[in-house]
Amino acid sequence: MKRGIAISITSLLSIFGATFIILSYVAFRKIRTQTRQFLVNLSIADLVLALSSLIGALVYYGNAGLQEATEDSDMLQRMCAAQAAFTMFGVLSTMFWTVAVAFYLCVLVVLHKQTGWVLVVVLYVVCWGIPGVLTIWLGVSEHLGLDQGATNGFCAVIPGAANSSDPYVIVVGYDMWLYLAFILLPAFYATLHYKLQPCALGHCCSLSRRPISKGDRKLAFVPLVFLFLRVWSIVVDVSIYYLPKDDTNRYRQSTASEVIGILEGIGIAGQGFANGVLFCLLTKAVRKRILAGLVCGWCWCRTGYEKRFSYRNDESEPINQRHNWASSKTLTVESNDDPVPV
Prior knowledge:
Blueprint: H1 2-27, H2 34-62, H3 66-72, H4 74-111, H5 117-140, E1 144-145, E2 156-157, H6 169-200, H7 214-217, H8 222-242, H9 245-253, H10 255-269, H11 271-281, H12 284-313, H13 319-322, H14 325-328, E3 330-332, E4 339-341
Antiparallel strand pairs: 1-2, 3-4
Helix pairs in contact: 1-2, 1-10, 1-11, 2-4, 3-4, 4-5, 4-6, 6-8, 8-9, 8-10
């Protein structure tokens, strides 16, 4: 139950964080760089994963005896497989887009110039295509369903299916990409840290020599966020699938299993929230625009209210003049005597 509550809260926060990043990119034209566009795609993947984890946590942990009911109901089995498909697609997409953001930043930093559209198209195809193909393969081969060792939601990848004897489904469908990300991301982050340190210390020769903008340099923290949150997935993965059976049974019955399971669920569903805080609330350019937008919206609402209030109390002004389109830019609604601003 504690695991379900933690996953639900984290998923809600990630939904808000990912939505904030997407809306800020749409609303503020000056921050629409190519690297930010990659961050938006990562946020879309985070949003899919957070929604799926939230639904899975609410259904799985909110219904007693769901495991037994799922085994007997075809509808629940299909629901389980669908939720597992969205979860796996979101998990794999966040991995690929995190690596893509780090890789693209490294290319910009090393080459000191913007890349062509070919690389961008290739990254789009890889980061959305491979997760989609893997998810379809897992679904067709009936490797998606209720897993007793799943900790991130309702259902997940089943190591063995009734119609398949493939022993490498976990490796090809999930583990290989997770471990590859944990190999590539530290290398990319080390490269970014080494190349961007002179610019951070103010030793760049000129602004034109800087490979990326000051705001985009914070995207170098994307690999760190991913590594910190997903390290618990590796711990759970090794403990469940790669330890001897006796050690796995002891792990599942221990208190550490519950604690690490909660951390894994938070890590899988929490990347959207972490990125939202880092790239919206803690980024000065975005934060200033958000605050300015909120202030302008409040001033606009207050001004509109004051105008409507003054129109109602101005009895000395002729009615035909108050409702004149050219002078006051208002329209008269037949069902209401008050003018409605256009």
